[in-house]
Amino acid sequence: MALFETMRPRPGLKVLVTAGASGIGAVIARAFAEVEARVLVCDIDDAALARFCAENPGIAGVRCDVSEDAEVAALFSEVERHLGGLDVLVNNAGIAGPTAGVAEIDPAEWRRTLDVNITGMFLCTRAGVPLLRKSEDAAIINLSSVAGRLGYAFRTPYAASKWAVVGFTQSLAKELGPEGIRVNAILPGVVRGERIERVFAARAQALGVPIEEVRKSYLEKVSLRRMVEPEDIAAMALFLCSPAGRNVHGQAISVCAGTETI
To answer: Does 143 fall in a domain?
Structure first.
């Protein structure tokens, strides 16, 4: 097989992307669909989900709050109904959480951030593993962040949850590797899009400075001095599910343009 052909996932993979109706998740879902995977997305945002499904008629969508046990159980019933099994679970769902000093953070916001960002990942993985065990191309891709390897002042709930994702990933890799289920984490850097613009705005408000100053300060900490595109994250996800990525396992892979600190 030619080398470039090994970098493309096989057609027909059954893929679930959580929080797949917008942002990075939507780009990942469309990328898998473009390589002839069968894709299902879930999302908590009804309007975004309806819009995404209308724009991408070949991709099915289901509403789900991944932090709720019952909703995750219902989601995986839909996975079986729509896809007839599962080869790839992309745990993308996550929220930014509050931007504030630790003494000012509402404990309810702390809990909600961890409930979505790490407990939701656990619930989806717990429900997905029985299906993945039946696959010959099983893979789990967990979305962490460069905040999962760097300290992040004023964003402690988010950073704590993303460090937890890396620990969860490496523990799962040891547990599930003997069964042939590959597990990796992708750590995006400053990814262009609406979400990072909201982060910039919240950071600017917390620090009492103009948003342009915040945007400039972020990019000054990136050695390539540019944002990452959502397509860069999708490309890594595709590689990890391709024959060329078959021995990449238990890794926390940064796609961050050389983010040095945040």
So the answer is: yes
Looking at residue 32, what is its pLDDT? Answer: 98
Name residue, tokens 């796609």.
255
Q: Given this model, what pLDDT does residue 262 score?
A: 77
The pLDDT tens digits for 199-208 are 888 888 888 9
Considering the domain boundaries, does residue 158 fall inside one? Answer: yes
| Element counts in the chain: helices (H) and strands (E) | 9, 7
Per the annotation, the verdict on 158 as an active-site residue is yes
pLDDT of residue 193: 86
| Number of structural domains the chain divides into | 1
Residues of the chain with pLDDT under 50: 1
Q: Is 154 exposed, middle or buried (0-12, 13-18, 19+ CB in 10 A)?
A: middle
Q: 158, 163, 200, 218: which is the annotated catalytic residue?
A: 158
Output the domain CATH number for residue 162: 3.40.50.720
What is each CA distance from 115 to 59, 66, 109, in whole angstroms?
27, 9, 10
Q: How far apart, in whole angstroms, are the C-alpha atoms of residue 10 and residue 174?
A: 25
List the strands of the sheet with 182-188, edge to edge: 60-63, 38-43, 14-18, 88-91, 139-143, 182-188, 252-255
What pLDDT is stored for residue 151 in this prediction? 86
199 assigned to some structural domain: no
List the end-to-end C-alpha distance of the chain, in Å, as a whole number. 42
Residue 102 belongs to domain spanning: 11-189+229-255
In a domain, 55, yes or no: yes
Q: What is the pLDDT of residue 2?
A: 59
